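(Protein data)
===
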Amino acid sequence: MNPTKPSIVALITDFGLQDEYVGVMKGVILSVNPQARIVDVCHAIEPYGIVQAGQMLASVTPYFPPETVFVVVVDPGVGGERDILAVRREGVVLLAPDNGLLSVWRDDWRSTDIVRVQQTRYFLSRVSRTFHGRDIFAPVAGHLTLGLPLEELGPPVDPRRIQRVSVPMVRIGGQGDVRGTVIAVDRFGNLITDIRSEVLSELERRQSKGEWRIEVREKSIHGLRSFYGEVDRGKPLALIGSRNTLEIAINGGSAAADFGAEAGTAVLVRTSR
């Protein structure tokens, strides 16, 4: 193992914690490298939530040490013809299925290191058709923490040929509004949107200064707050959350329940003069 590189494996899956899947993956990683440090980023991605997983990956990678091995197993095509890719980009090492997830994480793939994971000597000896997280992703991640070069895993892949999924773009409309989407609901029922603070700043720059109005399912919130306790308990608010995106919350309650919203729900932001 190269002592200058952290032996960290960060896991993102849609497995949940009620079954043995996550624990078994950890056991395989540690069997390859007993000194590996494993971080559970999230195992509550919505089942088959490729876009949600890619967006979460983008939000967490800046906060990990360089060369952390991220393993993202949100893999509805497991056992089929989809490839598994290993990527090194901007100090991040990543294992993920080639199902569009990478295109959500990054939208510029003109130049990077990507290989197709094919070298079976780094897999478990028996590979099932339904649990590549255990049989391929986990052992390969363990070997990567020991300093295995990406090129040992398989042939290079042209970045232009990776699978892509369509993600709606957040733009400022002609009427001076922003239309976005709820991309995730956290454990507290907060609605996390894809509307970044920079977009709101641009909207404010274009429009005469006025009060924000945020609309979700025919309900409105007026103004942006700085923290949850800035409104009375049980009252709704909008603020810029830890992901630097617009978040809709209820102080002490669930915005998802109150607004009847979920991932995919439309969000409209206007400024009123």
